[in-house]
## 1
Amino acid sequence: MRLPLTLVLALIHSLLITATPAKRSYSTHDYYVLEHNPSAGASLADCAHALGVEVVEQAGELRNHWLVRTQKPETSLSKRDEDRVLSALSLIRTRASSPSHVSHRSESAGQAKKISSAVKYLSRQELRQRVKRAPPPIRPGDDNSADSAKAVASRLGINDPIFTQQWHLVNDENPQHMMNVTGLWDLGITGKGVISVLVDDGLDYNHPDLSGNFWAEGSYDFNDHEDLPTPKLYDDHHGTRCAGQIGAVKNDVCGVGIAYDSKIAGVRILSGAISDADEAASLNYGFQNTSIFSCSWGPPDDGKSMDAPGYLIEKSMVNGIANGRGGKGSVFVFASGNGAQHEDQCNFDGYTNSIYSVTVAAVDYRGLHPYYSEACAANMVVAYSSGSGQHIVTTDIHDKCSFGHGGTSAAAPNAAGVFALALSVRPELTWRDVQHIAVRTSTRINPEDPDWERTAYGRMFSYKYGYGALDGYSYVMAAQTWELVKPQAWVHFPAVQLAGGAMTSSEVMSGGEYIIHGGLTSSITVTAENLKAHNFETLEHITVRVWIEHTRRGDVEVELVSPNGIKSVLAATRKDDSARTGFPGWRFMSVKHWEENPVGEWTIRVSDKGSATESGRFLGWTMSLWGSTIDPTKAREYTVPLVENQLPPVVDPEDEVISAQPSPTKILSKPTLPPDHGSSIGEASKPAFGNPSSTTASPTATMTPTLDEGWVSQMSNLVSDQKWLFAAGGLVALFAIGAGIFFWRRAVKRRRANYSSLPAEDMALSSMRESRPRTKELYDAFGEVSDDEDADESTGLRPDVVAREGLGYHAGFLDDDDPQSAGPTPYRDEPSHAQPPRERTPDSNESWEHASQTR
């Protein structure tokens, strides 16, 4: 009996979805991802035939997204626009958009319209290499030993030989600094029923410390497209070590994991280049059974990289939080990064500054901020890792144990282990509940550290520590009685364009205002009516997208000030970032305003801390608020826009935006950041960004210099700052000299007017008459500078004048920063004094608040 064609197609479709991912062959084929719109009138087969590709399989867990391929041409392509498949789609769309009186004459033109509408997205897949966030190398003289934890081992029947060296579980020397989970083990909370996947470089599933908890069904190798994530390269030990921190079994091998009765899986992506399609699939792999995706990787931590998930990868993360775990959402845990010694910041990483990630930074066994751990406004918590002479002791490949693991790579799985314990007792927690509980229960450490600031809600926040150190016992106890949060709501504000600032889809920028001395500001006003219209009740994350053109990206600072005067430093300077690409629609994120009342004026400031030879323009910005709904029955499902970084943005008709009038741009004084922020080792005395006294703005403080301040906004500090006294004296002297030259030249000109002028003199004088004096500038006396938009605001000279004539003796006299060394502070371990073991007692000041409390 023959089956109906529709049933056959349905069976084929089902097999394509459920089958193991096919092995890739990038040497012989080019791969693409095609997003198909089934309701457009053209089938997937029609689209594939028209483009000349064959369908391989569904792209991971993304519905209506298909991996397709075509055989490589005999000669390699030299240009992207020569791609045969992309060119075919372009031709189809050209035919589909031809005038109607022409299109209706051809049946193929009608088919072209259907195919053009059916192919919503088509992207060629390029292989990229992700970077492991491996720990810094072990320094000579580091002490890998730890004091005994025999009492705990005896009570719990732990016979693992290196358990006594796992200080992050039991820290005898500094008992207030550990993950604090042994009390949960006493209660029988050990992670049963929860699966965590290490998205990494593989997992040694045959290791006796891991084999008993290995979950093969949720594992896959996306580098070699094989069923098991076998470590193959010489340095494929990173994922195994991280896995041991979460799920090493309780036996007589190495140590134990935080959730030693939970299951662990491995998804291998870091051992070679990988396409966006495969990376997207890896972040959704087995996501109905797998609860936690532990990711200790990202763009290079070199202080000069800036990279974010592409369209497919962002869609996979949104798919994970919307549909993973039966709609409760996958929990994504990301290491914040190890580039602090290079002034790197986790807000330059699109994975760690995603609202869908729990971003975890590191503290060492003394509770100090290690030199490598990156700071930023997206840091949510810290967990314990290497530093001050100690490392994380865990499982290693080839039946070995590791004594040198660490970095934020180890902090992230420590946090994932705590989340596994919590989900084992409250599996109904959503991905946002996991974040809320982390904000409320984390412990403030080093309270004397000036990086701590009080938020508008009343909590303490630090760019280095987030909301504090993750406390396993407090977290799980809170999770057991937690009232689930309402569904997510959001408000997108329309983009503010400064001086006609715009950017095309190919990242060609135009317009914008020069980032002048003192910086530029712009504001957006949030009203209660805005929030109510979007069913928005309680604030959680804030994202800010900026368009900035600059000749040296590392010179730019970006700050956001809330209506309550709370400042989020979104980007501080980076000394090694000399990229000329600026910020082409880059998205920053802050958790510092969690549960703050957002009603009022939000102000962004963009300033330039660089030299006079570098310059830039601020083209525009936009802001989005993310939080909880007022009415859960009216919750919407978020859809990732196809194009996000274009200015003005391409607006999806289904995603309405609100109307808001931006305030005029203002001029501010230029702050000074200490050159060594984030570069020292084991410290608890330095703010991450700038002067701690300037990290919050008074709600009543003006953001514009007053009339008596003039263009020198720091004039009021002349008496207290000798540097300004010398600068002021120099300015007066230069003014007097310039004025003298000006009047002398004018006198000479008048005398010569009585005589016949030579042609050459006529030319010189005419060029002088063409220059227009600039108002409210010291250069008025010289009459040399045009008020043309192309003037370099740092020196007052147009770039063409600087290039043709060179800088005069007065160039750079406005510079007010003393040259200082920005090199890393040398590190030297200090001798530590052992403390007697003591029971950990809860801090009465560290109680957690309930979600229903007023904002």
## 2
Amino acid sequence: MRSTIVIAVLAIGCHGAVSPATGQASSRRPPGSASDPAIERHDRTVASDPRISIAFREVVARGHDDGVPIVLVHGAGGGGISSFDVPVPGYSFAEDLARAGHPAYVIDVRGWGRSSRPAALEAPPQANPPAVGSDEAVRDIAAVVDWVRAHRHRPVAVFGWATGGHWAGMFAARHPDAVSHLVMLNALYGTPGAWSMRARLEESDRPGRLSDSLGAYSLRTAAGLVQNWEANIPRADKASWRDPKVADAYASTAIESDPTSSQRTPPSARVPTGPLRDSYALASGTKLWEASDVRAATLVIRSELDFWSRPEDVAALQRELVHARRVAIESLPGATHIAFLDRPEHGRARMLELVIRFLARD
């Protein structure tokens, strides 16, 4: 196991408070939940590559943390905290898992959140090719998984959403002994076929080739961060499907995590484009990892309305996960790409049920 440098930071975010007298993390409990365990949050960092520090948040229920520890891996949008620990009561996926007994670890891959930003993100976008590739992301996941295994003394589960699902699968294939459970939500997998994002990434006069103008990163405003989510909701009244406070918190948390965001008007976050380059390759049929190398129990979930993954990806994974300890394939009827941040009746409750039930089995 690699040696790591760990720095504990007493932080609770917007969900709870830190006592100035004791420095101990605490959490507010919702009304009527006196019997619920207190939720604690600890922000930490661990070394990945030389001069690369990876931030992650530990979310645990005090005295109720003997379940499978799980690392949560974000996609190519807002980052880990904004995705999985959004500061709106009832919508933190990490907290839901912790309340079910599973210590949750929310990672920010390099380029997101409090993690190190590659030098390419400090230059103008067009000065460098797409930043943060899959190999780098997998090394960052490995650094956090090593830390969790050292502190929890057991293999861990890894949950990945969208590009994070691809990264999680790639990690599980490369480190089969480190992973007990793999969960992939709305992920691509090296399968040729139609892809809704393809036209956005190609020059109009050069179909079949990734645009040379992609650059190292894109600048995402609040509107840009939720644009695809809004388009994926099949109703004109988006608030009836997704709590507006959740969308606002997702975007604002992502933007505030970029220390340069206030230097631009409107404020925006730098988002690495390496995931888009790799996703373009995956959707065109280039495999970056082999599902047959995965040994962990694997749950593949796809939202029925997802714009990112395709049914072909699920079918290929189902065919090729031949060495996984067990495989479960599930659909979220009528759900969107970001089901875990939609209202419970639009896929969130079902997704949470599937994941917790899956983790309960060895």
